[in-house]
Amino acid sequence: MSDCADVRVGHVPQPYPPRRRAALVYAAASACLVLAACTSGNSPQPAASSAPATQTPSSATSASASPSATHSQTPTSPTNANYKKFDPKNFGAPTGAKNRWFPLVPGNQSLRDGSIIRGSRRLHHEQRLTVTDVVKEIDGVRAVVILDQDIDAGQNGETALDYLAQDKWGNVWYLGSYTEIYEGGQFVNAKDAWLAGTREASAGVLMMADPKEGLKYEEASIPGQETIRAEVTKVGVRKCVPFQCFPKALTVLEDGTEFKYYGSGVGHIATEPNYSGGEQEKEALVNVIHLTPKGLAEASKEALHLDRHARTAAKKIFGNSKRAKRA
Fold first, then answer.
1. What is the pTM of this model?
2. Residue 21, in any domain of the structure
3. In the chain, which ranges are E strands?
């Protein structure tokens, strides 16, 4: 890390929540903004991690990032996107922190801890998200790859790639996803494979540049699979997680089934169900770090491996796509 000084409402009957949302955090962060925004500022700072992306951070600590990544790149007059009007001309560099609710800074890694119900059992559940420096061109836009790992009862159950890009106003767009399922550490199958512009799938907005209460939009439209809808339900709500308290958090209701909470300068900090039955997934942020160059290289290597595997495991979607590469 750099040496910066700052650092679901009604009942919905028994839906089966999608297991993969780009929640897609990218949830890692600039702790400079966090300390400035929150009331408690004495969380210890971890050293930059050189561990591979498969190693779980051991304690709830805070992290720091360069102030320029979160302050100078933020537009003074953010403009919300029209999710129906995707235009490649509105995009530039895929990474950075133009959107304070969803920073896309390579090397940022977050860990959310919680539980999930599988059958009649409640299992310990962790979700680790890493912003890699891997870039893939999708529908005319350069998207950064987010490595999304689900660990259930201590075993890696799913690993996904989420492809995100930010436009010049700071809106974060969702351009594709690919998920692999594992049992006992072995690949079982692939699911949730889609790319904007392929087989009529359309990009959507994962996070608006300036979220307002009541704002409704689509995160993605995937023919034959699903349309992911979202609604901003609260802006400025206090939300506490093990990592720390956020006095002015943002709440988004996704597909009517899950409330997702976002902290300024950090990203996705919690998930809570808005339904009964089903998986009942709950998560809360416990750790945010910034990887060393070695740690980032290892996470990016894993992302490249999955993107290559997608070209055969999900050939109809990824077979003719452009190859991902490190920026």
1. 0.78
2. no
3. 108-118, 121-138, 141-152, 155-166, 172-183, 186-195, 202-207, 216-222, 226-240, 245-254, 258-263, 267-273, 282-290, 325-326
